[in-house]
């Protein structure tokens, strides 16, 4: 299991933050799985953005074992702690993609949950209103999950970069590192956020 300009960061990397208050994670068994974290993230009602609200409507259908429309795909990989949601809009050939996964922290008590919202058109990444990367931290003692500022979990160098059209952030279904494609003075380049057991180091490929 998976154990930027500051103002620009606040407006883009935290744009899809739903609430800074704690969210209760409900589960049965010894520990929560990725679907329990999704349930908690989608339990905030009016505090969610439009992207999460859309995801919630289809997540509810999926959990009731009802058939999803052809334009909607939900993928759940519990062993790897990963869920993805994909909605294709044929009218303008655009796509909304949401990924969620989590990492087990080395202290054995906490988990880090990440969610990426990404938009594209004709296969080309673009920055939608709700796009970005958001982190949450879960405490197994309290069973509470809360929004966590990106600088608390990522090395300072990462904060120097902003998200622009063409940026790509992908969470790992397999492995532990977040892959990035970001704009630099030399064009788009590939980077990683490498998991250390408690936070992420920014690595240039």
Helical content stands at 10-25%
Structural class: mainly beta
Rg of Cα set:
16 Å
Average pLDDT level: 88
* Biggest beta sheet attributes: 8 strands, antiparallel
| Beta-strand residue fraction | 35-45%
Outline, from the CA principal axes? globular
Order of helices and strands: HEHHEEEEEEEEEEE
The number of helical segments is: 3
Distance between the termini: 24 Å
Which runs of at least 5 residues are low in confidence (pLDDT < 50)? 3-19
The total of beta strands comes to 12
Protein model, in words:
There is one protein chain. The N terminus is likely disordered. The two termini are 24 Å apart. The radius of gyration is 16 Å and the shape is globular. Strands 1, 2, 3, 4, 5, 6, 7 and 8 form an eight-stranded antiparallel sheet that branches. Strands 9-10-11-12 form a four-stranded antiparallel sheet, with no helix packed on it. Helices cover 15% and strands 39% of the residues. It is built from three helices and twelve strands, in the order αβααβββββββββββ. It is mostly beta strands and 205 residues long.
């Amino acid at each position: 299991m998976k154990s930027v300009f500051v103002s620009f960061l606040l407006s883009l990397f935290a744009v899809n933050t739903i609430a800074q208050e704690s969210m209760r994670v409900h589960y049965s068994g010894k520990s929560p799985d990725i679907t329990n974290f999704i349930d908690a993230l989608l339990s905030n009602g009016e505090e969610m953005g439009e992207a999460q609200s859309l995801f919630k409507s289809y997540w509810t259908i999926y959990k009731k074992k009802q058939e999803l429309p052809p334009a909607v795909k939900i993928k759940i990989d519990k062993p790897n702690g990963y869920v993805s949601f994909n909605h294709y809009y044929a009218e303008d050939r655009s796509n909304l993609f949401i990924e969620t996964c989590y990492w087990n922290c080395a202290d054995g008590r906490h988990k880090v949950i990440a969610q990426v919202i990404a938009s594209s058109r004709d296969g080309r990444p673009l920055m939608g209103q709700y796009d970005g990367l958001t982190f949450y931290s879960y405490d197994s003692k309290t069973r509470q999950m809360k929004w966590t500022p990106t600088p608390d979990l990522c090395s300072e160098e990462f904060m120097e970069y902003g998200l622009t059209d063409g940026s790509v952030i992908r969470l790992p279904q397999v492995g532990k590192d977040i892959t990035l494609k970001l704009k630099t003075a030399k064009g788009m380049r590939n980077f990683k956020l490498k998991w250390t057991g408690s936070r992420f180091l920014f690595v240039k490929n």
